């Protein structure tokens, strides 16, 4: 298991060092600094073996987190733990920075003591942790016996992510369907690969221990119902404004927050759970079929002699005209030996950014079924460099108010048998946001 | 409140000040002081001098202060064991506190204090805490047992904590169960043979129940533990798989990977024809793909594991090529791993896409990545024959970019392509020669020299080219020197007239001016060969080289199996067994996959590649010293070559393991039976063995163990009537064996294969001391005992001998498949002969498939594996044919009559678990039968068909 955990600043100074196992000596701290942080070459692997000691590291801004071990540990678990550790720290004191870590070092030691015992990760749900590890000192001494046992039963319990006795005057929940659409297109407009990775993020402000059931237009479920003869009006619950009339979508794979009963999903494909309080990620999913690609980029690059490039890029929006895309940004890479750029664009603003080796074209808003164009002349310095310019792909960023996968929330039912509110009393909000992931067109 | 100020105190006399503050009466001041101490401790200052003062602060009801003091204790107790005793009382008292959080804190901290005197006091509190009413305390105590075991294993055993820990597996709280499992697994690792983790169906059931309820981390502990269990039968392993599969949808990647590990392992137990098996395979792909959208570090772990998974079960991800395409912003470690997997998944179906991608990557910035991409193009050419031409032209395009390292890398792989497809792409040599000067890396130079030497006759100025290299001979690396020597000798043999001077020059450089023994030896060998027998020299140096195969970088199968058992762990990231990087006994037990006996492991997929060639490692592209291998081949003539062959050159290895040695040579002359391959550097050899179809070796490896079981299982099956026994034929004529004549046949009786022989002494003297040995063969046939000839055979006497055979011998593919090479020794000499056995010898008595299974399997086997044959002039009706075939363990499963045509559906199973399915069409009045054979290893079809013919016609 994990033998020790160190946090360093960008200079390689130790901010936090917690050793769990006897086989990890003090010199391990230095070994990592010398061989990884101060290494001359860029790090080639997130796992490093130095003198039979393995180091796993992740970086957050300029802070290094390293887990150390001498055993054959579960590597995936170590990384998951390091990410979780970052989440927990962020939940407690915000951004992970040198200052924040120094300011909260006592708290971090306390957390490390709780969430990692002898190198074995323990319950690390912030919801539960916050009940007994607080920044204002531990509540410990002033609690009643009931409160104490409530804490321990929550930390160890089957529903470790939610405490009992939550009360809201107004029961309300927010569902955000957040998708990032990824594309790699050939210069000729052929889709080389495309997929949507989506997340359903829920903010729940519900009293008691509500039992929830979530439904979406999953093809498998819809087909099953179709066969069963029940006709549900999917149109009525269509809360989104997508541009396709698709009834259902094929989900390649999905993963769930630990509150979801996986065996039930496996057998009936129904998503039922008792949600944590506040914001959390209910599920992640991936689709590859019938994706609505909100934008199409048509590049045209012409090399005029050895010292000049002519670039023309057309973007076309491909969704309902009534919808508006926002924060559109097209990034056209330029060669390293660029000496000057002239840009003309019909819409938005375009600028050559020498430090980023790219022309950045920004458009605030654009409606569906429109097109816009930019043309640029790039002057090049003559070089002796034989190596050809690699022509990195043109990338795009945007945000659209629908789900490019076509996913729609059909229902989210809430049942709380002990308290007197019903599904109808809960105020529900659904929002769809489609963003660009890695959205690239080769040129 | 900011704590960062504690990091900044660096003034002198600090320790003294702290001491005063620690002893202050004010609580706040005390706390501040302890914080300062901890901060100093973190940055590496020695604050051990404050030990007594800090311990004095322990007696407090302020939990935050207590935790800080405990943290200090854990760090310094070891250096001050005597003073640490001062803390014991507080610990013991805290273990009885009313607040469960404090009880747990005390027992948790106490376990971290590695001082013998303290551990003695720990036992009683720990015992209580293990039975505490609060699950939070119990789960902490469970881990504490592992801590204590690490300090003093004997104490833990004596105190009976292990039993208490085992009881916790049945605890009502899932988290307690998970921690107990984790602790037990760790303790069990240091006692490899103990029965600590006594996994039985009841405990497994408890674990599976806890799996649904505990935290994500607990699920990992439980799944990792489950992976060590061996289910009793396929039903149990199926039911475990069914309960584990829902974990594949967990958001935590480690849970997913551990679940994959359990499934990959237990899948081995499932019969391949089971519907569930196919379903399971399908379920594995999506979660593996999803792992690739995790954070980059996890992607890296996932990719290293996927690399193993695709080697073991390529069918899982064969349609998912696109997800492994490299993204521009991937970190370099992710890019390199993706590239590896792309090549593994490359096939005829997707090669166009793959090549387009690789070409794209070859223009990127990172040098390592670009090189690997270029190399990958070459590997595609070797792997997918149809794409070779496209690959070569892509490589030529890349050479045109004139980027130095791209050109060099391209030349290295083009050399391999020449090796794989001789006389096909020589037209590109001219282009390559243009870049001769720019090559500065030894590997590229050596490759180019090899090409020039190999094709010297087609390159007009070959002598000039090689001469130009010779100028700086001494500055070259050994690799280049060796290659240059060989190339010039080749050139000389091809164009002797103009190059005499050159060859003398290189020979003297190599033998007289070099102090490298390898180079000198090679030089001398050439020299002597050339001076004594130029014809022989030609045969040796210009011998046809064995072909190379694509699977050069596959992980060795036993290691692969072990790594599959370690999916998700560091071992799977390093691709090394834990013993390679873990000190001491921990985790060094070797894990193996257990497959179900006789379930036809090999049948699963013909394209596992030659991954499973157990005895014969796949051919390695000989980058240097290939000629050395060729040379050694010649020396193999004495049959005593038993030393372990270096694995570098396939040709040579083949020669060395052939126990028959050169004896076969004499046989070749007038024996009409084709022998698998010739020995000793003759041109035929390359063709015979160089490129075994990828599927065959795979089929022969795993089921060997099953073979023996089958023999015993079926013993009671009773003798089948009417087994066709081919008449004895003369295998070894007397004139070839100094008067010994051997004729014989093969029989299968009650599941036992026997070789029945008549040994006839036609010589003038008595023969005795008989022994028999087989060469490696396709199905691992080997004598099950010694040849029982008890009395000497006097002249003109003949004797009958029956030799029982087993199928557990070493395996090597023969041509034809059912060829068997035998060596017989007696007091006079050793004799060699080869014979062919009817493949029906290998048909098992339980070769009758279930109808449903037959249907599914028939559909499942791709159509390209189907072969059709005609059996002419057979005058049996379908029932008679069916009966006759049954005698040879070819079972009719169903019969259908369509338009006067009888269709017989038949199945048979080979000793190595390969199933062969057949459809025999018999038309009344038509003496010609049509037979369609389907098998996952289509190579056997020809043999099976011949067998049909012989059985039906006799």
Automatic annotation (TrEMBL), chain A:
<dbReference type="InterPro" id="IPR043512">
    <property type="entry name" value="Mu2_C"/>
</dbReference>
<dbReference type="GO" id="GO:0006886">
    <property type="term" value="P:intracellular protein transport"/>
</dbReference>
<feature type="binding site">
    <location>
        <position position="362"/>
    </location>
    <ligand>
        <name>a 1,2-diacyl-sn-glycero-3-phospho-(1D-myo-inositol-3,4,5-trisphosphate)</name>
    </ligand>
</feature>
<dbReference type="Pfam" id="PF00928">
    <property type="entry name" value="Adap_comp_sub"/>
</dbReference>
<comment type="similarity">
    <text>Belongs to the adaptor complexes medium subunit family.</text>
</comment>
<dbReference type="GO" id="GO:0005886">
    <property type="term" value="C:plasma membrane"/>
</dbReference>
<keyword id="KW-0168">Coated pit</keyword>
<keyword id="KW-1003">Cell membrane</keyword>
<dbReference type="InterPro" id="IPR036168">
    <property type="entry name" value="AP2_Mu_C_sf"/>
</dbReference>
<dbReference type="InterPro" id="IPR001392">
    <property type="entry name" value="Clathrin_mu"/>
</dbReference>
<feature type="binding site">
    <location>
        <position position="353"/>
    </location>
    <ligand>
        <name>a 1,2-diacyl-sn-glycero-3-phospho-(1D-myo-inositol-3,4,5-trisphosphate)</name>
    </ligand>
</feature>
<dbReference type="InterPro" id="IPR043532">
    <property type="entry name" value="AP2_Mu_N"/>
</dbReference>
<keyword id="KW-0653">Protein transport</keyword>
<keyword id="KW-0254">Endocytosis</keyword>
<dbReference type="InterPro" id="IPR050431">
    <property type="entry name" value="Adaptor_comp_med_subunit"/>
</dbReference>
<feature type="binding site">
    <location>
        <position position="351"/>
    </location>
    <ligand>
        <name>a 1,2-diacyl-sn-glycero-3-phospho-(1D-myo-inositol-3,4,5-trisphosphate)</name>
    </ligand>
</feature>
<dbReference type="GO" id="GO:0030131">
    <property type="term" value="C:clathrin adaptor complex"/>
</dbReference>
<keyword id="KW-0813">Transport</keyword>
<keyword id="KW-0472">Membrane</keyword>
<dbReference type="Pfam" id="PF01217">
    <property type="entry name" value="Clat_adaptor_s"/>
</dbReference>
<dbReference type="GO" id="GO:0008289">
    <property type="term" value="F:lipid binding"/>
</dbReference>
<dbReference type="InterPro" id="IPR028565">
    <property type="entry name" value="MHD"/>
</dbReference>
Automatic annotation (TrEMBL), chain B:
<dbReference type="GO" id="GO:0012505">
    <property type="term" value="C:endomembrane system"/>
</dbReference>
<dbReference type="Pfam" id="PF01602">
    <property type="entry name" value="Adaptin_N"/>
</dbReference>
<feature type="domain" description="Beta-adaptin appendage C-terminal subdomain">
    <location>
        <begin position="843"/>
        <end position="953"/>
    </location>
</feature>
<dbReference type="Pfam" id="PF02883">
    <property type="entry name" value="Alpha_adaptinC2"/>
</dbReference>
<dbReference type="InterPro" id="IPR026739">
    <property type="entry name" value="AP_beta"/>
</dbReference>
<feature type="region of interest" description="Disordered">
    <location>
        <begin position="584"/>
        <end position="620"/>
    </location>
</feature>
<dbReference type="InterPro" id="IPR009028">
    <property type="entry name" value="Coatomer/calthrin_app_sub_C"/>
</dbReference>
<dbReference type="InterPro" id="IPR002553">
    <property type="entry name" value="Clathrin/coatomer_adapt-like_N"/>
</dbReference>
<dbReference type="InterPro" id="IPR016024">
    <property type="entry name" value="ARM-type_fold"/>
</dbReference>
<dbReference type="InterPro" id="IPR016342">
    <property type="entry name" value="AP_complex_bsu_1_2_4"/>
</dbReference>
<dbReference type="InterPro" id="IPR008152">
    <property type="entry name" value="Clathrin_a/b/g-adaptin_app_Ig"/>
</dbReference>
<dbReference type="InterPro" id="IPR015151">
    <property type="entry name" value="B-adaptin_app_sub_C"/>
</dbReference>
<dbReference type="InterPro" id="IPR013041">
    <property type="entry name" value="Clathrin_app_Ig-like_sf"/>
</dbReference>
<dbReference type="GO" id="GO:0006886">
    <property type="term" value="P:intracellular protein transport"/>
</dbReference>
<feature type="domain" description="Clathrin adaptor alpha/beta/gamma-adaptin appendage Ig-like subdomain">
    <location>
        <begin position="724"/>
        <end position="834"/>
    </location>
</feature>
<dbReference type="InterPro" id="IPR013037">
    <property type="entry name" value="Clathrin_b-adaptin_app_Ig-like"/>
</dbReference>
<dbReference type="GO" id="GO:0016192">
    <property type="term" value="P:vesicle-mediated transport"/>
</dbReference>
<dbReference type="GO" id="GO:0031410">
    <property type="term" value="C:cytoplasmic vesicle"/>
</dbReference>
<dbReference type="InterPro" id="IPR011989">
    <property type="entry name" value="ARM-like"/>
</dbReference>
<keyword id="KW-0472">Membrane</keyword>
<keyword id="KW-0653">Protein transport</keyword>
<dbReference type="GO" id="GO:0030276">
    <property type="term" value="F:clathrin binding"/>
</dbReference>
């Amino acid at each position: 298991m994990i033998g020790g955990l160190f946090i360093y600043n960008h200079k390689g100074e130790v901010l936090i060092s917690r050793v769990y196992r006897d086989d990890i000596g003090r010199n391990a701290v230095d070994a990592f600094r010398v061989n990884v942080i101060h290494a001359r070459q860029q790090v080639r692997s997130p796992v490093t073996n130095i003198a039979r000691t393995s180091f796993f590291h992740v970086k957050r801004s300029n802070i290094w987190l390293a887990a150390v071990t001498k055993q054959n540990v579960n590597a995936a678990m170590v990384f998951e733990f390091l990410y979780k550790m970052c989440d927990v720290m962020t939940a407690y004191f915000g951004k992970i920075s040198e200052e924040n870590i120094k300011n909260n070092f006592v708290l971090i030691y306390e957390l490390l003591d709780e969430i990692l015992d002898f190198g074995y990760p323990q319950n690390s749900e912030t919801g539960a942790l916050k009940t007994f590890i607080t920044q204002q000192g531990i509540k410990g001494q002033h609690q009643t016996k009931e409160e104490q046992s409530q804490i321990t039963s929550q930390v160890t319990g089957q529903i470790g992510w939610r405490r009992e006795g939550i009360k809201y005057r107004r029961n309300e929940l927010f569902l955000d369907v957040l998708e990032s659409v990824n594309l790699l297109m050939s210069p000729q407009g052929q889709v080389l690969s495309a997929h949507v990775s989506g997340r359903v993020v829920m903010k729940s402000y519900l009293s008691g221990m509500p039992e929830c059931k979530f439904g979406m237009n999953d093809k498998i479920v819809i087909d099953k119902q179709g066969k069963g003869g029940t006709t549900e009006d999917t149109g009525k619950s269509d809360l989104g404004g997508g541009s396709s009339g698709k009834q259902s979508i094929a989900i390649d794979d999905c993963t769930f927050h630990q509150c979801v009963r996986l065996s039930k999903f496996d057998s009936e494909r129904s998503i039922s759970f008792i949600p944590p309080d506040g914001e959390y990620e209910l599920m992640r999913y991936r689709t590859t079929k019938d994706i609505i690609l909100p934008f199409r980029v048509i590049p045209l690059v012409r090399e005029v002699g050895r010292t000049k490039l002519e670039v023309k890029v057309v973007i076309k929006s491909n969704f309902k005209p009534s919808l508006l895309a926002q924060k559109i940004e097209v990034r056209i890479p330029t060669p390293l030996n660029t000496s000057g750029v002239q840009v003309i664009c019909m819409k938005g603003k375009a600028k050559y950014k020498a430090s980023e080796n790219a022309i950045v074209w920004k458009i605030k808003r654009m409606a569906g079924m429109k097109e816009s164009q930019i043309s640029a002349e790039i002057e090049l310095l003559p070089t002796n460099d034989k190596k050809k310019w690699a022509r990195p792909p043109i990338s795009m960023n945007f945000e659209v108010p629908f789900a490019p996968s076509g996913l729609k929330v059909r229902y989210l039912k809430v049942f709380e048998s002990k308290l007197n509110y019903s599904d109808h009393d809960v105020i529900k909000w659904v929002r769809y946001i489609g963003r660009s992931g890695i959205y690239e067109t080769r040129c | 409140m900011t704590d960062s100020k504690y990091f900044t105190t660096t003034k002198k006399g600090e320790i003294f000040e702290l001491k005063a503050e620690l002893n202050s009466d004010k609580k706040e001041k005390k706390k501040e002081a302890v914080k300062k101490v901890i901060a100093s401790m973190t940055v590496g200052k020695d604050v051990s001098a404050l030990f007594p003062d800090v311990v004095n602060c322990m007696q407090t009801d302020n939990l935050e202060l207590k935790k800080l003091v405990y943290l200090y204790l854990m760090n310094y107790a070891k250096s001050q064991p005597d003073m640490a005793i001062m803390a014991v009382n507080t610990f013991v008292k805290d273990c009885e506190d009313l607040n469960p959080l404090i009880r747990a804190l005390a027992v948790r901290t106490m376990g971290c204090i590695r001082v013998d005197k303290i551990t003695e006091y720990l036992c009683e509190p720990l015992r209580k805490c293990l039975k505490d009413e609060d699950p939070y305390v119990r789960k902490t105590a469970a881990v504490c047992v592992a801590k204590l075991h690490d300090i003093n294993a004997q104490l833990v055993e004596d105190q009976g904590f292990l039993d208490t820990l085992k009881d916790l597996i049945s605890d009502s709280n899932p988290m307690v169960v998970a921690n107990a499992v984790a602790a037990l697994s760790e303790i069990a690792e240091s006692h490899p043979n103990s029965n600590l983790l006594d996994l039985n169906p009841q405990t497994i059931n408890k674990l599976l129940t806890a799996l649904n309820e505990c935290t994500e981390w607990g699920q990992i502990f439980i799944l990792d533990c489950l992976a060590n269990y061996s289910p009793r039968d396929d039903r149990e392993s199926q039911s475990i798989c069914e309960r584990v599969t829902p974990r594949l949808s967990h958001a935590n990647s480690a849970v997913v990977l551990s679940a994959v590990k359990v499934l990959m392992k237990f899948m081995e137990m499932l019969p391949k024809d089971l519907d569930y098996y196919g379903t399971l395979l399908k379920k594995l792909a999506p979660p593996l793909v999803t792992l690739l959208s995790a954070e980059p570090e996890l992607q890296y772990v996932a990719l290293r594991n996927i690399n193993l998974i695709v080697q073991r079960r390529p069918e899982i991800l064969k349609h998912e090529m696109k997800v492994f395409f490299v993204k521009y912003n991937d970190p370099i470690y992710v890019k390199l791993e993706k590239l590896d997997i792309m090549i593994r998944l490359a096939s005829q179906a997707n090669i166009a896409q793959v090549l387009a991608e690789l070409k794209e990557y070859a223009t990127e910035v990172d040098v390592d990545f670009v090189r690997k991409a270029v190399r990958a193009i070459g590997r595609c050419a070797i792997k997918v024959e149809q794409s070779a031409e496209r690959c070569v032209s892509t490589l030529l395009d890349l050479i045109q970019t004139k980027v130095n390292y791209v050109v060099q890398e391209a030349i290295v792989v083009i050399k391999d392509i020449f090796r794989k497809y001789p006389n096909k792409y020589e037209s590109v040599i001219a282009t390559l020669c243009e870049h001769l000067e720019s090559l500065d890396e030894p590997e590229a130079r050596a490759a180019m020299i090899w090409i020039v030497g190999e094709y010297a006759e087609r390159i007009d100025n070959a002598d000039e080219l090689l001469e130009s290299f010779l100028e700086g001979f001494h500055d070259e690396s050994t690799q280049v020197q060796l290659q240059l020597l060989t190339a010039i000798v080749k050139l000389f043999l091809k164009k002797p007239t103009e190059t005499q001077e050159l060859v003398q020059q290189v020979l003297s450089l190599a033998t007289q001016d070099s102090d490298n023994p390898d180079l000198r030896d090679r030089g001398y060998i050439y020299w002597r060969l050339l001076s004594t027998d130029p014809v022989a020299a030609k045969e040796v140096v210009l011998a046809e080289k064995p072909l190379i195969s694509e699977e050069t970088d596959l992980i060795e199968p036993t290691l692969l199996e072990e790594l599959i058992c370690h999916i998700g762990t560091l071992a799977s990231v390093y691709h090394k067994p834990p013993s390679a990087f873990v000190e001491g006994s921990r985790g060094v037990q070797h894990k193996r996959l257990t497959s179900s006996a006789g379930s036809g492991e090999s049948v699963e997929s013909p394209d596992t590649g030659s991954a499973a060639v157990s005895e014969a490692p796949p051919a390695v592209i000989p980058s240097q010293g290939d000629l050395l291998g060729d040379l050694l081949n010649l020396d193999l003539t004495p049959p005593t070559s038993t030393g372990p062959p270096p694995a570098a050159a396939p040709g040579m290895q083949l020669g060395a393991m052939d126990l028959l040695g050169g004896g076969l040579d004499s046989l070749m002359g007038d024996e009409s039976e084709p022998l698998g391959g010739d020995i000793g550097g003759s041109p035929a050899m390359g063709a015979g063995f160089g490129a075994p179809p990828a599927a065959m070796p795979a089929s022969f490896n795993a089921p060997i163990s099953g073979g023996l079981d089958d023999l015993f299982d079926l013993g009671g099956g009773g003798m089948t009537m009417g087994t066709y026994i081919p008449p004895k034929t003369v295998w070894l004529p007397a004139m070839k064996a100094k008067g010994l004549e051997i004729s014989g046949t093969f029989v299968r009786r009650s599941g036992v294969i026997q070789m029945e022989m008549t040994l006839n002494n036609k010589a003038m003297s008595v023969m005795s001391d008989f022994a028999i040995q087989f060469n490696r063969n396709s199905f691992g046939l080997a004598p099950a005992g010694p040849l029982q000839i008890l009395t000497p055979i006097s002249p003109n006497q003949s004797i009958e001998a029956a030799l029982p055979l087993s199928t557990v011998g070493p395996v090597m593919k023969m041509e034809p498949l059912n060829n068997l090479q035998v060596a017989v020794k007696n007091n006079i000499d050793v004799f060699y002969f080869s014979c062919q056995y009817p493949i029906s010898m290998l048909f098992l008595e339980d070769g009758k498939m279930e109808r449903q299974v037959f249907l599914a399997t028939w559909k499942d086997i791709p159509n390209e594996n189907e072969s059709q044959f005609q059996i002419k002039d057979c005058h049996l009706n379908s029932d008679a044919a069916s009966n006759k075939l049954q005698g040879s363990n070819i079972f009719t499963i169903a019969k259908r009559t369509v338009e006067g045509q009888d269709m017989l559906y038949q199945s048979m199973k080979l000793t190595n678990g390969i199933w062969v399915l057949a459809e025999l069409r018999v038309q009344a009045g038509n003496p010609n039968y049509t037979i369609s054979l389907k098998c996952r290893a289509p190579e056997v079809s020809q043999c099976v068909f011949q067998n049909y013919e012989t059985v039906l016609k006799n």
